[in-house]
């Protein structure tokens, strides 16, 4: 997914930096001195899955399980609290993300693809460390924890050998870390950001069928490209 969007992202950032750099004056010089400010974010993501098979899984029945990733989208709110000159506390609550990851099961004579579609409501609590501002831009790193609730969880869905369903637990916890660039325009601050998100522990719901019995651990991950407007 990053390869698909890399050219567009680089071109967009180049235009944004050029637009902020050609300005003869410093835009929004007092913006980061505010104790609190708000904004919104638009995001695109690639849902991934860290999968670990059981050591003793019966490869005469299930030969292998592969993960297929898909692009997704997200939309959310930003609350930024100033802690110090270079430190902020950033609350991303709520953020709605639509993610899909499929599992492809390979059997001796056939294969089966199982969809895992999620509609997350995320709450992230992040520390942001900013560099020295250079005219109308500065770089930053960000990291912290998150809690997610999956409105599309299928834990209560009927399932069976002929109706395979692999479910994730509706409530999960994880961490996220990334970096970005603050660009100051005349009336707003624009911040493109790349972030990696990962879930703690095993998020798979064990239902007793072969589709989950052959898997030891299933941990959702996300590569997210966000565009913040504040």
Explain this structure.
- This protein has about 230 residues and is mostly beta strands.
- The chain has one domain: Porin, CATH 2.40.160.
- Helix content is about 10%, strand content about 60%.
- It has 2 helices and 11 strands, in the order αββββββββββαβ.
- An 8-stranded antiparallel beta barrel has the order 1-3-4-5-6-8-9-11. The protein has a two-stranded antiparallel sheet with strand order 7-10.
- Strand 8 (about 170-185) and strand 9 (about 190-200) form a beta hairpin.
- The two termini are about 25 Å apart.
Task: List its traits.
230 residues, eight-stranded antiparallel barrel, mainly beta, two-stranded antiparallel ribbon, Porin, elongated
Write the layout of secondary structure elements.
Layout: H1 2-21, E1 36-53, E2 64-69, E3 71-82, E4 87-106, E5 111-130, E6 137-150, E7 167-168, E8 171-184, E9 189-199, E10 204-205, H2 210-213, E11 215-229
Antiparallel strand pairs: 1-3, 1-11, 2-4, 3-4, 4-5, 5-6, 6-8, 7-10, 8-9, 9-11
Strand order of the largest sheet: 1-3-4-5-6-8-9-11
CATH architecture: Beta Barrel
How far apart the termini lie comes to 26 Å
| SSE arrangement, N to C | HEEEEEEEEEEHE
Q: Name the shape in a single word.
A: elongated
Number of strands: 11
Low-confidence runs: none
Query: What is the highest CATH level, the class?
Result: Mainly Beta
CATH topology: Porin
Radius of gyration: 21 Å
* Sheet of most strands: 8 strands, antiparallel, barrel
Structural domain tally: 1
Structural class: mainly beta
Percentage of residues in strands: over 45%
- Mean pLDDT, rounded to whole units? 88
Percent helix among the residues? 10-25%
- Count of runs of 4 or more consecutive helical residues: 2
